[in-house]
Write a structure and sequence with these properties.
It contains 7 helices and 8 strands; from the N terminus they run E-H-H-H-E-E-H-E-H-E-E-E-H-H-E. The chain has 203 residues and is α+β, with helices and mostly antiparallel strands. The chain has one domain. A 6-stranded antiparallel sheet has the order 2-3-7-6-5-4. A two-stranded antiparallel sheet has the order 1-8. Strand 2 and strand 3 form a beta hairpin.
Length: 203
């Protein structure tokens, strides 16, 4: 799936054109007392392929990893990540998942991966690339807890520790601050066996 900008003749699918499973799993995090999931998708995502990509690609990665239920409600999304209100059992879900390690702020290598504005953070350990990096923010937003999840390219925590991937991450993502397209992450995830739901059409 080639994900490009809105100007490149691609449009986001309407809500009822998305796969049934996707609608069922994503709807609870989109809906609120003021807005239905369909209404929010139509107004916030149909006109923004980047936001739609961020939500759907992150959803696919988290669902495959068994942690989508960490998300109680969506705040917003970007290219390959989302800000969200965490579920009450987010810590339990992540700490009980053997494919995630909680970042220890007293460990130098862990501390490098821990964002200063996070209270707690976790890293996925069972994939080499397009790895889930998730954390709970120290500060609340509008009276609610706030958390963040995004995808990193090279996983220095792969199978516990991978020196080569750690160096690649440091050089490319931290020093050079390379930015990658949604298509780049989509291709990495699919190569790792993660199915990305269709959410775009060519026009």
């Amino acid at each position: 799936m080639q994900i490009v900008s809105a100007s490149a003749q691609q449009t986001v699918l309407n809500w009822w054109e998305l796969e049934t499973t996707v609608r069922e799993r994503v709807a609870p995090v989109l809906e609120s007392k003021q807005q239905t999931a369909e209404s929010r998708w139509q107004t916030e995502f149909v006109s923004s392929p980047g936001s739609a990509a961020g939500l759907i690609i992150t959803y696919a990665a988290m669902e495959a990893a068994g942690i989508w239920d960490c998300v109680k409600s969506l705040i917003n999304s970007w290219i390959v990540g989302v800000f969200f209100v965490p579920s009450d059992n987010m810590h339990d879900l992540l700490n009980s998942n053997e494919n995630f390690v909680r970042l220890n702020q007293f460990n130098l290598r862990h501390r490098w991966a821990h964002h200063d504005y996070w209270q707690d953070g976790w890293m996925q350990t069972n994939v080499r690339n397009a790895v889930i990096h998730i954390g709970k923010n120290r500060k609340m937003e509008n009276g609610f807890p706030k958390a963040e999840v995004h995808l990193d390219v090279y996983n220095g925590f792969f199978n516990g520790f991978d020196l080569s991937l750690s160096v690649k991450h440091l050089v490319n993502e931290v020093v050079r601050k390379r930015r990658h397209s949604p298509t780049f992450f989509s291709d990495l995830l699919q190569a790792q066996g993660v199915s990305i739901p269709v959410f775009l059409r060519s026009t």
